[in-house]
């Protein structure tokens, strides 16, 4: 195998942090976009030789795995972005899980069959019964970052790639929702300037949309 293969739907979705890691590392890889119907994919995936056939998938000379966080953690170890101490490595795992907890409700909202602008406004503001605002969801991450440049041990790790992607998606889908969290918006701007990342984001290979699949009620195309 000449290049690692990263396979996923032709969207940003759950795999974009791993794409960003590859771009930052300068490593050549095959960004394999799966363009087929879901029924065709369900039939095809069992032929690929994975223990748990799914998207995203990743394959290199050493491993053949699925699951987005497993892939991101593997790339962290591969490229030295998994924390430089035992404590930092543990914190990387913890903050990745925390970030997923912030991301997943947004994914669920975008795929809700009853999605509407009114529901989106209520969700962003946290005005519904038992709801948290977007700011409240992100505040613990801003506190964790503090005055540092990066989230764990003030060193660049895969956590930063995942949280940047999450902030970027939230900001596109719910404009203005994070403007008061200036620590996070500064982090977002700083990360964008990383060598490799900056060039990728300015290239024709990068597309802001679709974030989620065509089945989503919000995030497949940019709302005008």
From TrEMBL:
Q: Which residues form a coiled coil?
A: none
One record GO biological process: glutathione metabolic process
Domain (GST C-terminal) ranges: 85-211
> InterPro entries attached here?
Glutathione-S-Trfase_C-like (IPR010987), Glutathione-S-Trfase_C_sf (IPR036282), Glutathione_S-Trfase (IPR040079), Glutathione_S-Trfase_N (IPR004045), GST_C (IPR004046), GST_superfamily (IPR050213), Thioredoxin-like_sf (IPR036249)
Keywords from UniProt, A to Z, are: Transferase
Top-level enzyme category? transferase
Q: What is its EC number?
A: 2.5.1.18
- Family membership noted in the UniProt record: Belongs to the GST superfamily. Mu family.
Purpose: Conjugation of reduced glutathione to a wide number of exogenous and endogenous hydrophobic electrophiles.
Which residue intervals define the domain GST N-terminal in the entry?
A: 2-83
Q: Which Pfam families match?
A: GST_C_3, GST_N
Q: Which GO terms describe its molecular function?
A: glutathione transferase activity
**What is the protein named?**
glutathione transferase
Please name the source species: Eurytemora affinis (Copepod)
**So what does this thing catalyse?**
RX + glutathione = an S-substituted glutathione + a halide anion + H(+)
